[in-house]
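User: You have something folded?
Assistant:
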Amino acid sequence: MIYLTRMKLDPARRATMKALAAPNLFHGAIERGFSGTRARDLWRVDQRRDGTWLLLLSREEPDLSQAFRQFGAEGAEPVWETRDYAALLARITEGSRWHFRLTANPTVSRSDPDRPGARGTVHAHITPAHQTEWLLSRVDKLGFSLSADEFGVTQSRWLRFRKGAEGGRPVTLLAVTFEGDLTVRDAERFRQTLTDGIGRGKAYGLGLLTVAGVPGNG
């Protein structure tokens, strides 16, 4: 089973404001919403007209009681909502059109010519042109097609925090949100993209691709 859960956040709460800048805090709260060993979950924070939402895709139904106590919007009803994701996955067919939203970490690995054979250094793509090129270069392997005039970058922000306990390793990630319309070319591969995510930083709210039907096409 795969589940999609959403919970309304209160961005005015001190804990929420802190977690929006340091997403490892959200990650820790989400981890505590499950029991036992499981596959890594995908999640994302969306800031929309109707509020700020935590979206979570998981293979186990979560209990977000602790996360709600830390970050939830007081008076929200229901406290969180979980749906079976299978119904949406079943609607994925070759040629179908979808409106998509993705927050990801577009990067490139560059090798040092003075250190042949050494692992390359990962750098973030910081311009919208390079960010859109990054996504366009991957769509064939991800099971869909997309042209440059069908989507755009709607938000780009740096995340800087320390991994683990105080004094842990510093982590810097660039979170880039893309939004637009895509066409499915390989239904099975695209379903895998939806459940596996895209790119780096998945533990910190990056990589989750979500879709909604385009009127007349979905």
About this structure: The chain has two domains: 3-84, 94-213. The radius of gyration is 18 Å. The mean pLDDT is 90.
